[in-house]
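S.,

Sequence below, as promised.
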Amino acid sequence: MPLARALEDLPVAFNAAADLLAGAGSDASARRVAYLDDRGAWTYGEIAERVDRFAGLLTELGVEREQRVLLCLQDSADFPTAFLGAIKAGVVPVPVNTLLKADDYAYALADSRARAVFVSEALAPTLYEAAGGGPIVIVAGDGEGRLEARLDAATPRREPAETCRDEPAFWLYTSGSTGRPKAAIHAHASPRLTADLYARGVLGLREDDVVLSVAKLYFAYGLGNGLTFPLSVGAKTVLLRERPTPAVVSKLMLEHGVTVLQAAPTFFAAMLADPGTPERLPALRIATSAGEALPASIGEAFTARFGVEILDGLGSTEMLHIFISQRPGAVRYGVTGKPVPGYDLRIVAEDGSDCADGQLGDLHVRGPTAALGYWNNRPKSRETFLGPWTRTGDKYVRDAEGWHRYAGRSDDMLKVSGQYVSPFAVEEALAAHPDVLEAAVVGCADENGLTKPKAFVVCRDAEAASPALAAALQAHVKGRLAPHCYPRWIEFRTELPKTATGKLQRYLLRAEAPAGLP
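The prediction came back faster than expected:
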């Protein structure tokens, strides 16, 4: 298929799964390795067969077209099998973060009305608790009743559902400023368009690449990196089920000759600081960064050490992938980049007018991969999707040369390790501890210039404030929220700044945050 720049470049009758695996039918392509995971190598032919069998399994389970299935799967060949198998059958897959608590999964199940859940073995107890005897729960892996056995017994579905390019294909949950996560609904055309516009058009991904994404597949960033993009060009992808530490990632990169590394700034900083990271990564030709702004010092240090550029970029769950990016051979560290071809940008002043160069404003983006809206959340959809434009929630400044510089979030949300963190959620978790009277959480830059949560805590008994209590509060938050949410610093106060009406003045605390504890 020729390179697609707009929705109209694709045929109306279109199935995203069939499109991404279209090349797997030839003998040569079928023999190529598509994925390497902890169980070994999987060829394009094997992945295509598993996708067909998963589509058939859904039919046998009674899951009908346009109904949802929840995917709580760690990164392995099971993820593309289930994700693409559902799409091929016209069923809507809903990947979710694998680090959440039972209550979060229960909300996702109720919100999506999922007919079935597919879950990795290590996460099964949490999902069984969340499901509460509701939808069908199928655990990945070998054994009677498990996914592998069910796939072996399923009748393959060779023909894709007769879907069209602009109908819903999958959902991705994203956190908002307040309240529960929102499900962004994405169309069948969008994976192909992100692949053509960014992966081919900017990154220059090719068939002989070996890709490793530190960002997991359930993220929009990771989904493009590790599924859409490599499948679209016939490349090979290394999948990592476990936590991606620098030592583990470096080992895999050397072992498999990784040419494209995709991560967030936090990981690049950790990689540079880890004494076990090799001095050279001979196969690596390019790296990409997203999820939070890349500090210039990290990019410069990485390039100086490995001789490889990091292409910083900005994307969002609502737009599916990166729409502002650096360009290979023309990297300028310290700014996000310029628009990806196919996307238009506006920086909007408070009065709704376009900002002049050098003027700070709210970033809006227009492009063919915008979500169709949020599921069952019309108010938030109307706030975010403004006709052809999508409000990003980011503050930006554009210079006279067209470079875009990130200036922070438009609200109080924090972005930590590429994931949004609600200060309210962390404050609520802290307040649930018996020694805490009240708490406030803001973003604080660590030694690498990356944002991490800092908590200001007022104790019920002022004498209880101590390093031991700070450590206990961090552990307390880790037990209630996802790991990246816990406050890296805790500062005890006798009171918090508030307005006359009792509203917390976070901006005063943000001004103090750089003085955070080491």
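The two ends are 54 Å apart (CA to CA).

Coffee later?
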